[in-house]
Design goal:
The protein is of the alpha/beta class. The chain folds into two domains: 33 residues; 113 residues, DsrEFH-like (Hypothetical Protein Ychn, Chain: A), CATH 3.40.1260.10. The protein is built from five helices and five strands. Strands 4-3-2-1-5 form a five-stranded parallel sheet, sandwiched between helices. Helix 2 runs parallel beside helix 3. The radius of gyration is 22 Å and the shape is globular. About 11% of the residues have low confidence.
Amino acid sequence: MNRRNILWSAVSALGAALGASGAKAAAEAGTANKLKVVYHLSDAEKVNFVLGNIQNHIDGVGGPDHVTIALVIHGPALKAFHWAQANPDISKRAGDFSKDGIELAACGNTMKAQNVTLTDLLPGFLSAEKGGVVRLAELQSQGYLYLRP
């Protein structure tokens, strides 16, 4: 009777270990298969269009948990995200995207040219210190798909 319990315990432990290993592999595969996309925005007249594309992308895949998105902004488009002059719709969208885990990267060179710091931008932004185009290339080298609507 004692041997049977020992054998049963060993088989149960092995099954649990294999099950946990399989669950971990499935979780890692799900993360590995998660699409990564970087949106590139530089044209001021395309700000609302690009933000709409990002929202449609999130909605189309079933929510922000199903995609990894970054938005890299440089040039004239960055002015739309200046805290002092951003319209309420852009402020709300940027805030929602930030809460959803979307990287909002502002070109460091554009920030210098526009004489702004991160505190002058809407909350949630990070500075692409080496430049927006460098950040785009870094993300693409990490497997992000490049979109410039």
